[in-house]
Amino acid sequence: MFLLNTIYVDGNNLTLEELVKVARGYCEVEISQEAIQKVNKSRKYVDKIVEKEKIVYGITTGFGKFSNVVISKDQVETLQSSLIKSHACGVGNHFPVETVRAIMLLRVNALTKGYSGIRLSTLNTLVEMINKQVHPAIPEKGSLGSSGDLAPLAHMVLVMLGEGEAYYKGELLSGKEAMDKADIKPITLSAKEGLALINGTQVLTAVGALATYDAIKLAKLSDVSASLTFEALRGITDVFDEKVHLLRNHIGQMKCSKNMLKILEGSNLTTRQGEIKVQDPYSLRCVPQIHGASKDAINYVLDKVNKEINAATDNPLIFSDEDEVISCGNFHGQPMALAFDFLGIALAELANSAERRIERLVNPALSGLPGFLTEHGGLNSGFMIAQYTAASLVSENKVLAHPASVDSIPSSANQEDHVSMGSIAARKARDILYNTTRVIAIELLTAAQGLEFREDRRLGKGTRIAYEMVREEVDKLSEDRIMYVDIEKIINLVTSNKMINQIESSIGELL
């Protein structure tokens, strides 16, 4: 019997949408019956290794540089507990609750594949923490992204042991107090379990996966904000002709041109080639090429995310059917580090082009509109400093877009001599997403103001909805007022996804 609002995990079929439902929608989690059998089978094999005192990395040996140190049967539990305590070295702000929930779900999903040797009872404790909303306090910094996200994941496991700190019902408590209040019994780790819980890419993947989900929505909304500006500046729609884009044959470019035509359909503000002007500037004329490239990049990252959220990233991996344990490198975050660096660059370019359009809107030498979109310039500054803010965010993005994945610092006495820095790449992508979201919000607000100076306007099917939603939140700017209040209202509109959802429900799904 399947329960509503419950996500069933088996290690192979988790989707990004399900991840978001657990992370943000607080859906509960349950392990599938098939996965339970795989977990139990893998665990029996680990117990056999311990009983026979075979020398297997991480089960009967130390870790990293200490892999040549053999651990006796009576010390394997101490080994796992010591691992967690010593590796909990994170620093910085705590991850948001939604990120922590995503981390926990991804670790459960990876372990249910049945290649890690964890006990079902231990895994159920982590599931119970998700369902009862005990959220470990996990510092953002400290992972090299290889061997997995060791430090932050150790902070997650501390709470399972009744140690560390956790958030419960919005309050930061000791791990023991949080577990007690949620009526969850702390665990004692058995052989291999500590390593199984922390050796993987689930932190960097959780951060990057949520950013990817939001990036898909924001890329669509960037087409909407560009369309509003296109109308305010009387853009030429010939550039969206399908014939043009078929000749280049880039999927994202073709999708964007279709979006723009759909959003602008019915507008009387757009023009044809030669009616008013021969060509638009690149930030208008090349929207399909610029936005399309970012869409293609985001789709590339999405493919990597879909693979990684269902991947076995533990070390060693246990192949009980083959009577084999392989010490490997699936914990290495490089596949995702490169992808999340790419995601950050793609998002930064959406902001770059949007800021250039904002500048064209407020600059009377370029727009044909009143300077800074105010009727009484001099006495009022209008949207002058809104463009400054957008420029500041774009400049910060350029610093953040420097790739983390090209860096590596050897660790563990040079045993781990190449690391991915994937967690840094993921956090940078998240931060660029934050900035770009705000630049797009400023463009929406600025373009709506620009449209106030176009008489007898009839907006497109999509832009009309966007304009009206902006105006439901913020009135036309007739004289200067505190601008950050207006900007925050449109940021909230953007991050709620209400605008993109309403536009898609009215004119069809954007690409």
UniProtKB/TrEMBL annotation:
Domain of life the protein comes from: Bacteria
E.C. numbers: 4.3.1.3
Keyword Lyase applies: yes
InterPro entries assigned to the protein according to its UniProt record, in alphabetical order: Aromatic_Lyase, Fumarase/histidase_N, HutH, L-Aspartase-like, Phe/His_NH3-lyase_AS
Key words, A-Z: Cytoplasm, Histidine metabolism, Lyase
Post-translational modifications reported in the UniProt record: Contains an active site 4-methylidene-imidazol-5-one (MIO), which is formed autocatalytically by cyclization and dehydration of residues Ser-Ser-Gly.
Gene Ontology BP terms: L-histidine catabolic process
EC class of the enzyme, as a word: lyase
PROSITE patterns named in the record: PAL_HISTIDASE
GO molecular function, one term: histidine ammonia-lyase activity
Subcellular compartments: Cytoplasm
One Gene Ontology term, aspect cellular component: cytoplasm
Pathway this chain belongs to: Amino-acid degradation; L-histidine degradation into L-glutamate; N-formimidoyl-L-glutamate from L-histidine: step 1/3
Chief localisation class: cytoplasm
CDD domains assigned to the protein according to its UniProt record, in alphabetical order: PAL-HAL
HAMAP family: His_ammonia_lyase (MF_00229)
Record family assignment: Belongs to the PAL/histidase family.
The protein, known as: Histidine ammonia-lyase
The organism of origin for this protein: Vallitalea longa
Gene: hutH1
